[in-house]
Design goal:
The structure holds 2 protein chains of 2 kinds. By secondary structure, chain A is of the alpha/beta class. Chain A folds into 2 domains: about 210 residues, Rossmann fold (3-Layer(aba) Sandwich), CATH 3.40.50.300; about 60 residues, no CATH class. The longest helix of chain A has 19 residues. Chain A is elongated, with a radius of gyration of 22 Å. Chain B is α+β, with helices and mostly antiparallel strands. Chain B has 3 domains: about 230 residues, no CATH class; about 150 residues, Immunoglobulin-like, CATH 2.60.40; about 110 residues, no CATH class. Chain B contains 11 helices and 19 strands. The radius of gyration of chain B is 27 Å and the shape is flat. The chains are: A alpha/beta, B alpha+beta.
Chain lengths: ~325, ~550
């Protein structure tokens, strides 16, 4: 059984009248690369800042590396690396001075690794941070957060506004550390996240809609296209796992969010009758989230509680998914 | 300790320009201050130093005495905001900083670039003035404490709850507005200007900044810290409004015990024209001058009037009470002293009392001093030492002439002016040369002066050397001279015998006396309608009044 790097319980945060986070329950196992995704204003940064004890929660409880997040300060932070898109760095320092300044704070600072990161990220040591491009600043911040072998790396929207080359460099830099660290990353950039995340959580309007392994998420979503002999009548109430049900003449489309070849096929026959042709198309992470966002999120309400807890169990190897899925894929 | 030094050195590298400017200003101050002393060996000696010319030595010292603390404060603010305690984007909050180490690094910065330079400056100035610096360490530490508590810590607390210098300046602007509003409010609260009676505001003013700094460094609870500051401001207003002033004044200045002989006699009469009335808090108030005479003061006594309260009573039983107002430590020497209290009375009350002879009940809160250690002292030529460790010298007559003052002795004192030094000069005994055609002075004419300050180990400021003039500030039995050029120029020159003494405080007390036969119309003064922020204390502002009240033996 693996340990939990992050665990939150009913975390809520209220900024005056705005509820930024509501009953946020998250579990990230050690060794996971967890991508927290969601639209702007979903509460990703709020959640991360509470985890990092940058500010406190209004309600609820969070643990990071076994420590109550409200006690996360001083020496406890020496095993956590944090990089944020809008972090204020000491701009008057050169990259070299910045790294040199941080060294004594970390007993595990690795000079060789620092040199390697500087080389890998092509950091100009003699340039002041204020004179660096946005990408270079993020790379400098990341290098300063990786050089001490942190157990946990927390990245808040690190790829925002960066060109693909820099993104690749950052991702490579992270992937090189996957063996030794747990990574929590928030991002809009679903395509990038898909390439390296092991787990994904979808946050919307302050609530975690689901949280599970990326492979199982991709496995259970399918774009379904049904062709009938004659235009079928659409049911008044479709199965809750069917998202964006629509018909165009004799062709019916929907997104199946609990895909199982046999069960889905059986369900289609029961609800819509015999079909002339059925197509199940796998979906990218981006397509899944677009479907989620457009569907009115009625599914999410029902899956959140199940899947957030199940994700942790999966990582522990005690359960494979929040919903029962078959093996066949179309 | 290693990390404390590490953070400290980072701040030094970051703020070297600010540090350099503050040190340069300090050095300039250290160079200009001795030159402004009217003392043998100083450039200011024998020159006119009282003007405001741009290149005037004293003016430079006056400018620098403001600029040096400003430079310190700016540097300290920048150091604190280098690891800003406000906001959620600072890189350092997710780094393994220990708040105690961070706070210690900032304190070290404060010590290194404010307290230590100030200590070095003070040692230099003491030595330059001719004092042995090693003898004054306790006082120098007291000065450091005052500057730290009054200046540095409050500004550091504001820096801890603001994210930038601009935000801090805006906060200071708001605080300035608050203070102006508090001042206006205080004018409407009877007795509120009779300060020094309530220690609570001082305690709150000292404790709150410490609490704010501790809270911010330990928890970064900016909202709570800001509420603390707002709470302090609210509490001070509340204290101004709700403090039991009468109780506090009666506690600090207890009335004379029944049957106890009053230390002076109080009577109506004198010269009311010498005081200008002040505006009341209401435009319809009527200004009244209450002229009073203090006489039969014990020969060895000095009275320092702290406040007065006047109650007028008409024959129909109608009473009006002015409540306690400050008298700004007005001094009364033995002999007959004339003074007056200005009152602002509501017109409705005035209209009821105008045609009657009134009973006046005057209460005076005062500090009684008793003369002690009286001795004769002949002013020697050159520099000499007074028993309280002041270094003095008779000012060149030409300089006195330039300044338009009688010849006097100028002194430099370490840490603070004398706690209490009283001088009496028999004018005919002055050895100063008479003006051409100057008439002889009456044999019983004399002048007196009293230098006194708090008895704390040092005065608040950044220079440990105080300069003061030993001179008669008031004259008795001197005929009036309408033509100022014919006025006798009699003062203190080498060879002049003086009687020096050290009055000591006996007690704070309060005297209430009833006087009869006061008629309002005789003492009515018009009050200008034009609004201004005036002193409603019943006496003119300190800068407008003479140091000593007129008196006659």
């Amino acid at each position: 059984m693996t340990n939990r790097a992050i665990r939150t319980e009913n975390l809520s945060k209220q900024f005056r009248k705005v509820e930024a986070l509501r009953n946020f329950n998250l579990t990230v196992s050690e060794g996971a690369v967890y991508a927290l995704v969601g639209p702007n204003g979903a509460g990703k940064t709020t959640a991360i800042k509470i985890l990092m004890n940058i500010f406190g929660a209004t309600l609820g409880h969070a643990e990071v590396l076994g420590t109550d997040s409200t006690r996360l300060r001083g020496r406890l932070l020496s095993s956590i690396g944090y990089v944020s898109e809008n972090q204020e760095l000491p701009d008057w320092m050169t990259v070299d001075a910045f790294l040199a300044y941080l060294r004594p704070f970390y007993p595990a600072w690795d000079r060789d690794l620092e040199k390697e990161l500087v080389r890998q990220f092509d950091l100009p040591l003699d340039r002041k941070l204020r004179d660096l491009s946005r990408g270079m600043r993020v790379k400098a911040a990341l290098a300063s957060s990786l050089a001490y072998h942190p157990k946990l790396i927390v990245l808040d929207e690190p790829f925002t506004g960066l060109d693909p080359l820099v993104r690749d460099e950052l991702i490579q830099g992270l992937l090189d550390r996957v063996e030794e660290s747990t990574i929590l990353i928030s991002s809009h950039d679903l395509a990038e996240v898909e390439t390296f995340a092991s787990h994904v959580g979808y946050l919307e309007k302050g609530q975690l809609r689901f949280s599970e392994e990326l492979t199982s998420l991709v496995d259970r979503f399918r774009e379904v296209e049904l062709t009938f002999e004659t235009p079928p009548p659409l049911p008044k109430t479709a199965p809750e796992a069917w998202l964006q049900l629509s018909a165009s003449a004799a062709v019916v489309h929907f997104i199946e969010s609990r895909f199982d070849p046999e069960k889905t096929d059986q369900q289609i026959r029961t609800v819509l009758g015999e079909t002339r042709d059925v197509t199940f198309t796998p979906m990218s992470l981006r397509s899944i989230f677009l479907a989620m966002a457009k569907s009115g999120r009625e599914l999410a309400e029902t899956t959140t509680n199940v899947s957030t807890t199940s994700a942790a169990k999966k990582a522990d190897g005690t359960e494979t998914s929040g919903v029962d899925r078959g093996g066949a894929k179309s | 300790m290693k990390l404390i030094l590490h953070i400290f050195l980072k701040d030094v590298r970051h703020l070297w320009r600010e540090i350099a400017v503050s040190l340069a200003l300090l050095i300039a101050f250290g160079r200009s201050v001795p030159d402004s002393w009217v003392h043998p060996g100083s450039r200011g000696y024998g020159t006119f130093v009282g003007g405001f010319g741009f290149f005037n030595l004293e003016s430079w010292a006056r400018v620098l005495v403001v600029l040096v603390p400003l430079a310190w404060l700016f540097t300290v603010v920048r150091a604190i905001q280098g690891e800003s305690l406000v906001g959620d984007r600072q890189f350092w909050v997710t780094r393994p900083y220990d708040w105690r180490q961070l706070l210690a690094a900032k304190l070290l910065f404060l010590l290194a670039f404010v307290n230590l330079p100030m200590l070095v400056l003070d040692l230099f100035l003491l030595a330059r003035a001719g004092f042995a610096p090693g003898r004054y360490f306790a006082g120098l530490f007291w000065m450091q404490l005052l500057v730290t508590l009054i200046l540095l810590i409050p500004v550091a607390a504001l820096a801890a709850v603001t994210a930038s210098v601009v935000q801090l300046l805006l906060t200071l602007f708001v605080i300035a507005i608050y203070m102006a509003c508090s001042s206006v409010l205080a004018q409407h609260i009877p007795a509120s200007n009779f300060t020094s009676t309530d220690p609570l505001p001082t305690i709150l003013l000292i404790a709150t900044p410490f609490a704010v700094i501790a809270l911010q460094y330990a928890r970064r609870r900016t909202a709570l810290a800001r509420w603390l500051i707002l709470g302090l401001m609210g509490a001070l207003i509340l204290i101004t409004v709700a403090a039991p002033y009468r109780t506090l004044i009666n506690r600090q200045y207890p009335p004379l015990r029944s049957g106890e002989q009053p230390p002076f006699e109080l009577a109506l009469g004198g010269n009311p024209g010498m005081w200008q009335p002040v505006r009341g808090t209401h435009p319809e108030d009527v200004g009244i001058i209450l002229p009073l005479t203090i006489s039969r003061t014990a020969p060895d006594s000095i009275l320092v009037m702290q406040g007065s309260q006047v109650e007028l009573e008409g024959p129909n039983g109608l009473k009006w009470n002015s409540d306690w107002t400050s008298m700004n430590s007005m001094n009364f020497l033995p002999g007959e002293n004339f003074f007056s209290v200005s009152l602002a009375m509501p017109r409705s009350i005035y209209d009821h009392l105008i045609h009657s002879a009134l009973k006046v009940r005057v209460s005076l809160a005062f500090t009684l001093y008793e003369d002690a250690n009286r001795r004769t002292f002949v002013v020697p030529p050159g520099t000499f030492t007074l028993p309280d460790a002041s270094l003095c010298s008779a000012m060149p007559i030409e300089s006195s002439m330039q300044l338009g003052f009688p010849p006097m002795v100028t002194c430099l004192a370490p840490l603070h002016r004398p706690t209490s030094l009283f001088l009496t000069l028999k004018l005919p005994e002055s050895t100063c040369p008479l003006r051409q055609g100057q008439p002889p002075l009456p044999p019983d004419s004399f002048g007196r002066g009293w230098i006194h300050s708090s008895d704390s180990p040092a005065e608040f400021g950044i220079s440990p050397v105080s300069q003061f003039e030993l001179a008669p500030f008031t004259y008795s039995n001197v005929p009036s001279y309408p033509d100022s050029s014919a006025r006798p120029l009699t003062g203190i020159c080498p060879g002049t015998p003086l009687t020096l003494s050290n009055p000591r405080k006996v007690r704070d007390t309060q005297l209430t006396q009833q006087l009869e036969g006061f008629r309002l119309p005789e003492w009515l003064k018009p009050i200008p309608r034009k609004a201004f922020f005036g002193n409603t204390s019943g006496v003119p502002a300190a800068s407008d009044r003479p140091k000593l009240c007129t008196h006659r033996m």
